[in-house]
Amino acid sequence: MHAGLAGKEFSAVELAKFFLDKIRKEDGQIKAFITVTEDLALAQARKVDEAISKGESIPMLAGIPCAIKDNILIEGVKCTSASKILENYVAPYDATVIKKLKEQGAVVLGKTNLDEFSMGSSTENSAFFATKNPRDTSRVPGGSSGGSAAATAAGFCKFALGSDTGGSIRQPASFCGVVGLKPTYGAVSRYGVMAFASSLDQIGPFANDAADCQAVFDAIKGKDPLDSTSLDSPERKEKLEIKGLRIGIPKEYFIKGMDKEVDGKMREAIGKYEKMGAKIVEVSLPHTEYALPCYYIIATAEASANLARYDGIKYGSSAANDPEVNDLLGVYVKSREKYFGGEVKRRIMLGTYVLSSGYYDAYYKRAQKVRTLIKKDFESALSQADVLLAPVSPTLPFKIGEKMEDPLSMYLSDIYTISINLAGVGAISMPAGWEGDLPVGMQIIGKPFEEDKMFQAAMAFEGKWE
Amino acid sequence: MISEEEIRHIAKLSRLEFSAAQLEKFQKEFSAILEYVESLKTANVEGVEPMAHSVKVANVFRKDDPEIQGTRLDNNKKLLEIAPATEGDYLRSKAVF
């Protein structure tokens, strides 16, 4: 697409119009977008066309149409986090990743649906509407970045951004059959993404193949003075040889509760790497069974603090003018009661509980210690292997409505992805294979800041790496 | 199972409110989730340091510079514009008592 633009086969405006038209015609079925930013897209595209007509060389992402999860701020554009409490909130500034995309000249087509405040694994928890899986519209696209994954899979955009706190990029990438990256914690600035659990959140890209996904990652990564937990990734290293590459298989991930289709495709994927000359080694992540409870304590604790900012005073929906509201506390309580959805309340409550006096040591502090054990598991496994290969989700994409009445079973669909956030390492999610029309995803997990190696291993699997 | 009273207390700390019907449903769901996270109690954490963050950075300082922080006055105006109620350069709220 970059070559087509630079070679003047088509213009950026033509490209933007093509995608906007496709969204207009087809998104009624999928419902990936909350807001379509037609004016912004066309204005950005015109700028790129001007640069091309002046004979300037254009950056890799110039003119490339993209979609952005609706929890990442774009100045002057509505940003809802799929919550009623931010239904009419217009972002006052650009997130750092948006600033970087704009500098490259990428064209933003719109903002995509998610589970409210990224809390969910199916995009059914959006306060507005559920998004459907383009591979089978009776099924969920995964979540929470389900809109971005669905938009990429449906061909509504060339790439998309999402955010991942416990699997919110990787699980929808897996369910929609696209490539998604949860970068190493700190590799991408979090400035301007709505905070859910700050020690776990990372922004990352979706694309239809690993090379495109990497191009986007390269554009958005790097240290940012506005996010003091961000760091520069080291320069790209030498070319990876698949022959002799040590691929670790965590034995705890292949025991119980996995669908036989997922198990089968994973074993085929391992076989494929073996044929390419990779060395398969069994590794152990002994504290895997604790990852999910550990995550639900840490993530909700951080969320309960982060979401305290929605108070009906500073911004967002307010119940201040409701007749029964008489004082400041009433404004807080009523605004939150009225405009937060059920899952958000559930998590704020759990987070408040585990941080409250008398329970702090038993829950939160204990979870922080378990987190150390989980991180050490990964350090040890990644010292015996160059990358790890694991499933993304224990099941194929489930049916819409299937898990909505049982929050715990919904939580269990994140079982293979959450440890990665707790450990802070990066992971790519990509299709391992297809079961009929439904994709089965796998994760390539790497050492901190070794995304380059992970992408090369992913491209080798796609057959696009020598 | 967690008591209704405890749920009310946590709701108060969370600045949330539940109707009687919601409370009953919530009590059940919440108890199931709590029971699940209880499984952490069997982990051996003796001598293990707690961890809050995976990146080894601490005490990152920067200049108090509005240009870097994006806190210039024109930005402040934008922030006031998105507030539900303002008066002059102030946010307006109900009385505390």
Quick take:
The complex is a heterodimer of chains A (466) and B (97). Chain A is of the alpha/beta class and 466 residues long.
Overview of the structural elements:
Helix content of chain A is 40%, strand content 14%. By secondary structure, chain A is α/β, with parallel strands linked by helices. Chain A has a domain at 2-159 and 202-220: Amidase signature (AS) domain (Amidase signature (AS) enzymes). In chain A, strands 1-3-2-4-6-5-10-11-9-7-8 form an eleven-stranded mixed sheet, with helices on both faces. Chain A is globular. Chain A starts with a helix and ends with a helix. Chain B contains four helices and two strands; from the N terminus they run ααααββ. Chain B has helices at residues 4-13, 20-37, 66-69, 73-81; strands at 86-87, 90-91. In chain B, strands 1-2 form a two-stranded antiparallel ribbon. In chain B, strand 1 and strand 2 (90-91) form a beta hairpin. At the A-B interface, helix 9, helix 10, helix 11, helix 12 and helix 13 of A face helix 1, helix 2 and helix 4 of B.
